[in-house]
Specification:
With 333 residues, this protein is α+β, with helices and mostly antiparallel strands. It has helices spanning 52-60, 77-80, 111-120, 123-130, 161-170, 188-202, 215-223, 240-248, 262-273, 277-294, and strands at 3-15, 25-37, 67-72, 75-76, 85-89, 95-101, 136-137, 178-183, 207-212, 229-233, 297-303, 306-310, 313-314, 317-318, 324-325, 330-331. It starts with a strand and ends with a strand.
Length: 333
């Protein structure tokens, strides 16, 4: 039986930034070769940051490879990219990436400091540099195509340096504090987000040092209040409850900013219990306004999910649960 999928010396590197004379690269996929026959199942196994997701993205054509070959059903996938495949995505669902600030430690225990950073952030620059322009800018927990989105972000997409400096001064930091960003060298996007954020915060007098740590160290610090500022993401948001009950409600399983607001908790609980769509939408309209103003997190952008498929496939869509809907799929000539 012939191979359905064959990889030959596949290699992928990711730039970690730095000055031109000292550029560093992370080898995410290092000369990987394997093959599998039709009807067989193969799964890569490895610890977080070992390159499993990057390998899959290379195979699917969602990111480029620096070398090697990918042969699928006899066709060279790398040679066909842009011609034989189309990508289906959904404007109604996505993976929100955000900057997280630990509201239980100084200086982020002061909401004025968090608000100042929100006003200093340039979401477009983070998306363009950290995620190579992929996805859409994020102002709330839901993407613009969702029925739950009401564009309630109070800080918008424009920076306001003067207002940010005034907030820092009101918080007692007229000279600007020094803070530490927890970064992950195994994941280029969060590390690049930190590098972009560091430069943005210089404009309001904040000095930010980046501490790069292993995944296990980062996770332990993230869940135990052992950090000041970092970036993270929520796996997916089908409706606002997927985000707020888990990440924002005090005592939620992944409330890693240690933010607490009784008004928010009451609204989240009532919205989750309600079966009236209009009532839920009204309560969820109030929640992001409060949370955005308190700024324990700063929404940066949404990662979009793409499904690659043959260019003669028509009618496929992605559900809000991020699964592929194929009921009305057909083929064109």
């Amino acid at each position: 039986m012939s191979d359905l999928l064959r990889l030959e010396n596949l290699r992928k590197t990711c730039a970690l930034g730095g000055p031109p004379w000292a550029r560093r690269e992370l080898v995410a996929v290092n000369h990987v070769s394997f093959s599998t026959e039709r009807g067989h199942t193969m799964g890569p196994v490895g610890e977080s940051g070992s390159g499993k997701s990057t390998l899959g993205r290379c195979i699917l054509g969602l990111t480029g490879a620096d070398g090697g070959r990918i042969i699928f059903d006899g066709a060279d996938v790398l040679g066909l990219r842009g011609r034989a495949f189309i990508y289906v995505t959904s404007p109604a669902a996505g993976i929100p990436d955000f900057i997280a600030m630990n509201a239980s430690v100084a200086p982020f225990a002061n909401p004025l400091v968090r608000q100042a950073i929100a006003l200093a952030v340039n979401r477009s620059e983070i998306r363009d540099l950290a995620d190579l322009g992929a996805g859409e800018l994020g102002l709330t927990e839901m993407p613009t195509g969702s029925i739950w989105n009401d564009d309630a972000g109070l800080f918008g997409t424009e920076r306001n340096i003067d207002a940010a400096k005034a907030l820092l001064a009101a918080a007692g930091f007229s000279e600007g504090p020094t803070v530490e960003y927890l970064g992950l060298p195994q994941y280029p996007e969060p590390l690049k987000t930190g590098q972009v954020l560091r430069e943005l915060l210089k404009d309001i007098g904040i000095s930010m040092e980046i501490k790069a740590v292993d995944v296990s160290v980062w996770f332990d610090a993230y869940v135990s209040a052992g950090y000041q500022i970092t970036s993270a993401y929520q796996q997916r948001t089908i409706n606002p409850d997927n985000f707020y009950s888990l990440l924002i409600r005090f005592g939620g399983p992944v409330n890693t900013t240690f933010y607490a607001n009784p008004e928010v908790e009451s609204l989240v609980d009532k919205a989750a219990a309600s079966v009236d769509m209009g009532e839920r939408q009204e309560m969820y309209r109030q929640v992001p306004s409060i949370v955005t103003n308190d700024a324990p997190i700063i929404f940066a952008h949404f990662e979009t999910l793409h499904y690659p498929m043959s260019s003669n496939v028509a009618g496929s869509t992605i559900t809000p649960k991020l699964s592929l809907h194929i009921e009305n799929v057909g083929f064109t000539e």
